[in-house]
């Protein structure tokens, strides 16, 4: 059985609430990532599988049964993605189902968005360079080249859902770097 607070966030996420998606990502990212890091012994692969896990979970959120543990459900998805990747033996060309898309709502800028737009450009670029290259790329394409999710998806040859999850994660990591720098 899950907590009432978690159930509320899941229900909001099912309706497309951006803050609820962010809450789920922020609260469960490290557990899924650590699980995959132990399995793969590779940071890049673990991160990619974690992105795919959240992408798939967000698409299939309606199938989650509240009578079970949310983290167990995420880990099961993550484990299955890893097994599929091993079977295909080509991590770089494996993608989440391209037909499934989540409608993330960007109605109001998040705190991360505000931090990004308020920072001095040259200072911000230095902070962005601290991110891993694939996060730098999605930040660059979205905020400096102002590409749409679809255009980014085509450019980096990944599904839109992966782009959205990577961008959420990149913004969170960048916000943490900015907060650490200002502390």
How would you concisely characterize the structure shown here?
The protein is mostly helical and 183 residues long. The chain has helices at residues 4-14, 18-40, 43-59, 70-88, 111-118, 121-128, 133-144, 149-156, 160-182.
What would your notes on this structure say?
Helix 1 crosses helix 2 and helix 8 (149-156) packs across helix 9 (160-182). It is globular, with a radius of gyration of 16 Å. With 183 residues, it is mainly α. It folds into two domains: 4-93, Rna Polymerase Sigma Factor, Chain: A (Orthogonal Bundle); 111-182, Arc Repressor Mutant, subunit A (Orthogonal Bundle). It has helices spanning 4-14, 18-40, 43-59, 70-88, 111-118, 121-128, 133-144, 149-156, 160-182. Residues 91-101 have low confidence and may be disordered. This is Sigma-70 family RNA polymerase sigma factor.
Helix count equals 9
**Helix share bin:** over 70%
CATH architectural label of the largest domain: Orthogonal Bundle
Structural class: mainly alpha
Q: What's the CATH H-level superfamily name of the largest domain?
A: RNA polymerase sigma factor, region 2, helix turn helix motif
Rounded radius of gyration (Å): 16 Å
CATH class bucket of the largest domain: Mainly Alpha
Distance between the termini: 38 Å
Report the principal-axis shape. globular
Average pLDDT confidence is 81
Order of helices and strands: HHHHHHHHH
Question: Could you tell me the number of beta strands?
Answer: 0
Largest sheet composition: none
